[in-house]
Design goal:
Helix content is 4%, strand content 35%. It is mostly beta strands and 1101 residues long.
Length: 1101
């Protein structure tokens, strides 16, 4: 027993006349049979039955513990925080090494693009939700310029009052934003403190302070800055509770540091940098340094939650210090600008005599009224349950204005205050459910409760300095705004704001979109077949399961967990059998039920829930033992020891998809148990203690081999993935499967893990900093995909469809997905430099010159190859992921290929006069095959690069050849366009024959994967109007848009490398290129001269 560590062949004719209209499967919120508490939307009504023995603060503590173990934090002890920063640097180095790899199929796969799918936002009537917002700052002279920091969602900027949002720091080393400060005298300079200071174990630690110059425009980011003049790191691993910028000098800032993670207690861990107040006098310079203000509280290593300064006198600084025993509370300095910050002195002016972090927490607001000698300060404090204090003498003395329990019972977490910048008596207060936000017109003596419709649990209020009627509010539900002094608010959570914190996800067996996932505070959410989101249950959503026998998208058996607690006598999960049914709870809810006890010795807050094979799928649930149900949870039997280990919770369950008797169970202390015979007495599968004694995050059995399994851990500083290939031996051998050296996974938690069922050697790991892929069963790993923020990934799954997609649940940026077909098989056409982007390129007929503009570095390439009578046939004939310059000579039927590798060439005969060259990868080996369409015989001839010739009769007189991969199987399909009736006939290599009427005589064919689903979309460009019309491969709906004019030459390609074909034209009259890039925006570039031929137009018919 391991030492216990606490915490644990069909023809379809589609006549397209109008776009198809789809309605969402279920747009209503089909809730639990017990409903949702309107005062506590993050908790289901089932809480009512246990709240007599389980308070909200205890709930929050258990949730904090749950997040801690997901982050590798055991028993409140934070690991070396430098390990995560080192992992981020390692990942950056691995990405750079990946980018330097020789161009190849494998490299192209790793460079596929991630796409966010939301929810953005979570639907909630007129008040949609997002994830937790911690900090807000408003421009001093423009109320529409606002910066918003999310708990793990990074920094967002709006320059139009929240109508549009731009993410500014998605590649930062930390996306946990604790504080934002705008320089009053230089508002284009802002400072961003990383690490959330909310004293919960979901409050990720940070790496210091970033500076953004030209913040409202180009946003030039520098940092992180975290060093003293002696080069000591004083911020990594901490949170930044507040940053104050000197009123007239942007070089001077004060920063308050706190515990980044460590539980509600906020206890000190002396291995980490000392907490307190730090001042920098060169913050606007190239390498800012900080000095600790050691005169605060006898230089105690204590969290400083908030700071405030006299706007007229920066020597007057007040601070909230979190120390128990009567020495915590409000401190004041009158010489904060002392020449040496270490000599500044502080006096305790308001003591909070408590050991509770809630009782010790305070937030400040400051104003210096015109004509007054001293500044007025307000303190919203959790002391004595939640009250407001006021000082009118610059913070020297304080008077209670009201004791209204506004933040009870979680003042450490839900607390915010702000003052009208023009009226010292107008105060705003925010806290827990009983006061989401309120306003006072009498200096805090009384408050009017407002905030109807706003998600509870408030964290930040910011009033626009130039318009006191405008304020912004941040809560667990995202970002809100008022333009009438908080009398009413509106939600600013929209399609550009991603901050949802997922715990897990599950995908449908056949529908490519259908997904459910649990979120922190924001319930269980549903991604419908039509790609829309709905919140389908309330509560604190956890893990999810979808029965893999679902034959449609309505009658789908689904499961999910809420929170679980032994002390709260709530142990179990919810289920429903259709997309419109209510959720029914299975398990202990104050009393034993469905065969699940209330008296087990341990259960995780987010208890593991897993499916086995069978119809319906068997369901497994873990407390300190494993429960199994074969009747959708109506009854359960215990299929393990009871308990497996006393007081130790089950943390992961893996069931073989091939054999329900093969089970693998991981414990919160690193224990591994299992059976291959279905025995209810599980065997200790790691008697030798090979696997580290850390929380087992995932236990996964190879879907194709019952003897191979993997376990992953949530920890720092050691290999996180272990593997066995002899699970059936009784004493399996475990070996690290995390790679080594430059090909290793970073030493951070691996919370998500999946084995590709089509290739057991292909593995995907969701880590604390992103996603990795292994193509060799864990021997080597590499960062997978591009465009994913540095965010913790809590779950991964492979969604079905053609192509399949890897979908991930992040804890702070919602869900993302990547097309697995795009990754391994689709390369950008006309990519001469191998960066997976189409290069602007021309052929100059008279000298026979090819010119291309390298998208990789902006340089030009040129070569003489061919003559004016040759037909251009550029393609990747050699399989090196670069397009080879090539041509077909109609007079002789010869092909000439200039190898991109070394610029040597080869030639071969294939075809005759009158043939139309149609090179493409018809056999799926990642090499273009020489091919011709012979109109005289309506026959296709394909010279397969792997050997042999394929001859196929397909077409009729007058048809135009349009080969492309229309079914997403990695092979080009034979296809023709018949101009007279405007028909497309496609002989798909996997999906069979399809015919579509789309277009008319005179249209130009421009097939390509415009939607990024790995399948070519039928498309045409109409020269008479300059319109492009795309027929979506997903559902045969269409869309159209103008791009170009008469005389333009359509030249489609993937000009930004995001896996989507971009509309583009070459304008011969000006030799100018225009590309409407799907990700990178419009590109306009002059390239060429009169008489040049656009190379990307080579296969447009």
């Amino acid at each position: 027993m391991k030492k216990f560590l606490a915490l644990f062949g069909l023809i379809v004719l589609v006549l397209v006349a109008a776009a198809a209209v789809f309605l969402p499967l279920e747009s209503s919120e089909a809730q639990s049979e017990l409903g949702v508490d309107p005062a506590e939307p993050d908790m289901p009504r089932i809480w009512d039955r246990s709240r007599s023995t389980f308070g909200k603060e205890e709930f929050l503590m258990e949730r904090a513990d749950a997040f801690a173990i997901k982050r590798g934090i055991i028993d409140g002890k934070l690991p070396d925080p430098g390990l995560r920063s080192a992992a981020v640097r390692k990942m950056a180095n691995q990405e750079a090494a990946r980018d330097r790899m020789p161009d190849s199929f494998e490299k192209g796969a790793l460079l596929a693009a991630w796409n966010p799918i939301g929810p953005n936002p979570i639907p909630n009537g007129s008040f949609p939700w997002s994830g937790r917002v911690i900090s807000i700052a408003v421009h001093p002279t423009n109320p529409n310029i606002v910066y918003v920091g999310a708990a793990q969602g990074g920094l967002y900027r709006s320059t139009d009052g929240g109508t549009n949002w731009t993410a500014l720091m998605d590649n930062a080393q930390s996306l946990a934003i604790g504080a934002i400060a705008i320089s009053p005298s230089q508002p284009e300079t802002i400072y961003i403190g990383t690490g959330e200071p909310n004293f919960s174990s979901d409050s990720f630690f940070g790496v210091g302070i970033y500076r953004i110059d030209n913040a409202s425009t180009t946003a030039n980011i520098s940092g992180p800055f975290n060093k003293t003049a002696a080069n000591a790191d004083i911020f990594t691993g901490r949170g930044i509770g507040e940053i104050i910028v000197h009123p007239t000098n942007p070089n001077v800032i004060f920063a308050a540091s706190t515990s980044g993670v460590g539980g509600i207690s906020g206890s000190a861990n002396n291995v980490l940098p000392s907490r307190g107040i730090y001042r920098s006098d060169n913050a606007a310079g190239a390498t800012p340094t900080f000095t600790k203000m050691t005169g605060l509280a006898a230089n105690a290593n204590a969290s400083v939650r908030d700071l405030a300064i006299d706007p007229n006198d920066p020597n007057i600084l007040i601070a909230n210090v979190i120390i128990g025993g009567g020495t915590g509370g409000i401190y004041r300095s009158t010489n904060a600008m002392a020449a040496d910050p270490a000599t500044a002195t502080f006096t305790l002016v308001e003591a909070f005599n408590s050991t509770s972090t809630s009782e010790l927490t305070a937030e400040f607001a400051a104003i210096h009224p015109v004509g007054n000698a001293d500044a007025t300060f307000y303190a919203a404090t959790g002391n004595l349950g939640g009250r407001v204090l006021r000082s009118t003498n610059g913070g020297a003395t304080w008077v209670q204005q009201i004791d209204n329990n506004f933040c009870t019972p979680q003042c450490f977490y839900d607390i915010g205050v702000a003052v009208d910048p023009t009226n010292a008596d107008k105060l705003y207060l925010a806290g827990s459910p009983n006061m989401v936000i309120g306003f006072s017109t009498n200096a805090g003596v009384s408050f009017t409760n407002s905030g109807a419709g706003v998600h509870v649990d408030s964290h930040a209020i910011a009033v626009a300095p130039s318009d006191p009627n405008t304020l912004y509010l941040g809560t667990d539900g995202g970002i809100y705004k008022s333009v009438n002094g908080a009398s009413s608010l509106t939600s600013l959570n929209n399609s550009q704001f991603f901050a949802t914190q997922f715990m897990g996800l599950s995908v449908h067996p056949t529908d490519p979109n259908f997904t459910i996932g649990g979120t922190q505070d924001n319930g269980t959410n549903y991604y419908s077949p039509t790609g829309t989101w709905a919140r389908v249950d309330g509560g604190d959503g956890g893990y999810t399961v979808i029965d893999q026998n679902a034959a449609d998208t309505t009658n789908v058996r689904m499961y999910h967990t809420y929170y679980n607690s032994i002390s709260g006598t709530l142990v179990g999960y919810a289920t429903r059998g259709t997309t419109s049914a209510s959720w029914a709870f299975r398990g202990c809810n104050g009393a034993p039920a469905n065969g699940i006890n209330c008296t087990d010795t341990a259960v995780l807050f987010y208890a593991p829930l897993e499916a086995g094979p069978g119809n319906p799928n068997t369901i497994y649930y873990g407390s300190d033992r494993v429960y199994r149900s074969n009747d959708t949870g109506v009854s359960h039997t215990v299929v393990s020891q009871a308990p497996i280990e006393s007081g130790v919770a089950v943390s992961a369950i893996g069931i073989s998809p091939q054999d329900d008797n093969v089970r693998l169970v991981g414990l919160a202390n690193g224990g591994i148990y299992g059976t291959t015979t279905g025995s209810s007495t599980l065997t200790n599968l790691d008697l030798g203690g090979t696997i580290p004694n850390f929380f087992i995050a995932r236990a996964v059995i190879d879907p194709n081999n019952v003897n191979t399994a993997y376990v992953t851990m949530s920890g720092f500083g050691f290999a996180q993935v272990y593997k066995t290939t002899n699970l059936n031996s009784g004493t399996p051998t475990w070996t690290p499967a995390a790679g080594s050296g430059g090909n290793a996974l970073p030493l951070v938690p691996v919370s998500g893990f999946v084995i590709d069922p089509l290739d057991s050697n292909t593995l995907y790991a969701g880590t604390d900093i992103g996603v990795y892929k292994s193509a060799d069963a864990g021997a080597t790993w590499a960062p997978f995909g591009t465009g994913l923020p540095r965010v913790a990934v809590f779950d991964v799954a492979i969604a079905p469809g053609s192509p399949r997609k890897l979908r991930i649940a992040t804890h702070g940026k919602g869900m993302y997905e990547i097309s697995l077909a795009t990754a391994p098989t689709v390369r950008s056409p006309f990519d001469f430099d191998g960066d997976n982007k189409t290069d602007i390129s021309i052929f100059r007929p008279v000298p026979g010159e090819w010119w291309y503009s390298k998208s990789s570095n902006g340089g030009n390439g040129a070569v003489t190859f061919g003559s004016s009578s040759d037909t251009l046939t550029p393609a990747d004939f050699t399989g090196d992921a670069k397009t080879d310059i090539a041509f077909f000579r109609p007079s002789s039927g010869l092909w000439y290929v200039l190898r991109s590798e070394d610029l040597t060439f080869y030639a071969f005969p294939f075809g005759t006069t009158g043939d139309v060259p149609v090179p493409a990868d018809y056999d799926g080996d990642n090499k273009a095959d020489a091919a011709v369409y012979r109109p005289s015989a309506n026959t296709w001839y394909i010279s397969n690069s792997g050997g042999g010739t394929t001859i196929t009769g397909f077409g009729a007189a007058g048809d135009l050849p349009v080969p492309a991969d229309y079914d997403g199987d990695g092979k080009a399909d034979i296809g023709i366009y018949r101009p007279g009736p405007g028909q497309w006939w496609i002989q798909r290599s996997t999906a069979g024959l399809v015919a579509v009427q789309f277009g008319q005589t005179g249209d130009k064919t421009v097939s390509g994967d415009y939607t990024g689903d790995g399948k070519a979309d039928i498309a045409y460009f109409r020269p008479s109007t300059g319109n492009w019309t795309i027929l979506r491969s997903e559902d045969f709906s269409f869309y159209a848009f103008p791009f170009g004019t008469t005389g333009d030459v359509p030249s489609p390609g993937d000009y930004d490398g995001d896996g989507k074909t971009d509309a583009a034209i070459f304008r011969p009259s000006t030799s100018t290129w225009y590309a409407q890039r799907s990700t990178a925006g419009t590109l306009i570039q002059a390239f060429g001269q009169a008489g040049d031929i656009a190379v990307p137009n080579a296969y447009v018919r």
